[in-house]
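User: I'll paste a sequence; please echo it back and then give the predicted structure.

Assistant: Echoing your sequence first, then the prediction.
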Amino acid sequence: MDDRKIHFIGIGGIGTSALAQYYKDQGATVTGSDRDPSQKVHDVLATKEIKVVVGHSASNIPTDADLVVYSDAVVEGSEGFVERLRARELGIREQSYFEALGDVSKNKKTVAVAGTHGKTTTTGMLAKILQDAGASPTVVVGSIVKDFGSNYLHGDSNIFVVEACEYRDHLLELSPEILVIMNLEWDHTDFFPSLQALQETFKKAIERVSTDGIIVTDPHNKNIAPLLVHAKARVVDYTSEPAYELRLPGEFNQQNARAAAAAARVAFPGIENTIIYDSVLNFQGTWRRFEYKGKTAKGADVYDDYAHHPTAVRETLRALRAKTSGEIVVAFHPHLYSRTRDLLDEFATAFADADKVLIAPIYAAREVDDGSISSQILAERIRASGTDAVALDLDAIEKMLREVEQGGTIMTMGAGDIYKIADVLVSKK
């Protein structure tokens, strides 16, 4: 890619920023723009000398660019769309992030990690195992992995490890030789009208893995098992892996470790057991996955987690409850009106291990409020299930969390901006 010039619209996205780093490593000149300053991601890009402009404008597009890559959020009506229009005026080729990622995967020995829960941690663990084994993989992951300080890992081999998202069938853009399916539950309800629709996407992904490929999954999972009859590839059962000693809490992380270990064995045959054991034991985790942030001025412990699906919320809080006997106060940022509405019954009981739940206004992201759901409705349903809950704005939530006493534990949780409160709580003492 020497001498190629590539511009990213929405470069602050966790996926687009990783792909930008990959192109830079391949010799391209990379620039990008972003609507808001995503400090964590922008800091990573700065270390790679990738210039980022905050704010969208037609003038951001280099007139001599060879390619413009845009994030999913850059659609007609969005602020960034003005840059796509400018690219068209200039006759510059456009690709979505997932289309570009798919092109990269065609020429690699691709290991795609998919499923409803655990993709990010499993991808990070797998990356560390392969790195420690000397396999030198290239890795694109959906968070900042603490072990290599980025959402991207440069590799010199043909192994390409990528976290694969099923939303809008993006998974089907990839060409995996090894497909890892962690688990499967109904999610992304704004795109998939039912579990069956989601299963259809995974069935297609399974069918596309060739006879020379491998599918690593839990063949006993009730939502996955019926899909495996369509597999041409060999199926490897990750649940047959042993239990591993981890620094990360929770049974869900045990499953993540098993899947990562099983995938590493088939991606890099002959890998030694001691390397796998040492790698998962020393894996430090990722940004916003059961991340310990520090203490408040009053001495309360603060954790942050990305959990935004009822199952992830339930299992994360179960693991947190096992770590403490004190009060647990959760600040939850619901993500999307559709998910909150469609999974309301499951959300109502997911907070049972918390003592108090503070519900922030629903993070709308790409959706418009139709009045059918609200944070107040969610709080009412949680209270009806026996857990104290109240709907508040973000300022009021921060104020209440500051009052949690020493011995108590705070968990900020959700896919929105709630993590910023955790940062403020531990920085202002």
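The longest helix spans residues 251-267. The mean pLDDT is 95.
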